[in-house]
Amino acid sequence: MIYRISDSEVIRRVLEGEKDMYRELVERYQPIVFRTCMGFLHNKDDADDLTQEVFIQSYLSLSGFRGNSSFSTWLYRIAVNISLNKVRRTSRIFILQRLDSFFYTKKGKEIQLIIPDNENPESILIRNEHREWLQQALNSLPGKQRTAIVLSRYDDLSQMEIAVIMNTTEGAVESLIQRAKVNTDHGPD
User: Fold this and answer.
1) Is 90 left (phi over 0), alpha (psi -120 to 50) or beta?
2) What is the C-alpha to C-alpha distance for residues 105 and 167, in angstroms, rounded to an integer?
3) What is the DSSP code (8-state) at residue 107?
4) pLDDT in tens, 117-132
5) Which residues have CB under 8 Å from 157's CB, separation 6+?
6) What is the pLDDT of residues 11-40, one digit of tens each?
7) Are 165 and 80 in contact (CB under 8 A)?
């Protein structure tokens, strides 16, 4: 039998000065925090950076954790808030800069895209078009709808878990998810 120390025990020990114990919480929750950030940002490097920011912020705020909810719920709230703030700060110019950096080197030379032999260019184009549409659709949603759909689809959380994280009712979460689906129901042709 593998003994796993509880979140509350880890938190107590960290607050009593065993700061290295925080690594236990990071290792436990890093995958779910990353998926949440990825759901908002759609970019691995940005999601990695934001995941670090979430754990730094949660560490600095740990003394304020009252235990009214589970640590994971509290951490999700921090991840969602930091992700939404990042999305709000990110402008369309940033997206254009990313596209530019993908197709051109720093010296302005065009990069040759290598297409694997087993994948035809049309299927790559269609897949990229759908990915781009999905990112635009998610980004166009109001904050609460986006949060509900990301936690539901990217993190595969139940409506009850989402309701706790968003501090609302299951009915409100169901409504947010349904409205998000309606608002994103006009996919690429």
Assistant:
1) beta
2) 45
3) T
4) 566 667 767 777 777 7
5) 151, 165
6) 999 999 999 999 999 999 999 999 999 888
7) yes
Q: Does 113 have pLDDT greater than 50?
A: no
* CB-based burial label for 154 (10 Å; 0-12, 13-18, 19+): middle
Element (H, E) at 187: none
Question: Is 38:113 a contact under the CB 8 Å cutoff?
Answer: no
CA 188 to chain centre: 24
Say if residue 65 is exposed, middle or buried (CB neighbours under 10 Å; 0-12, 13-18, 19+). middle
Residue burial 23-58, b: 16+ Cβ < 10 Å; e: rest: ebbeebbeebbbbbbbbbbbbeebbeebbebbbeeb
Assess contact for 34 and 48: CB atoms under 8 A: yes
Domains and CATH numbers, the chain: 1-112 (1.10.1740.10), 115-189 (1.10.10.10)
Would you call 43 helix, strand, or coil by DSSP? coil
Q: Where are the beta strands (DSSP E) in 88-185?
A: none
**How many other C-beta atoms are found inside a 10 Å radius of the C-beta of residue 138?**
22
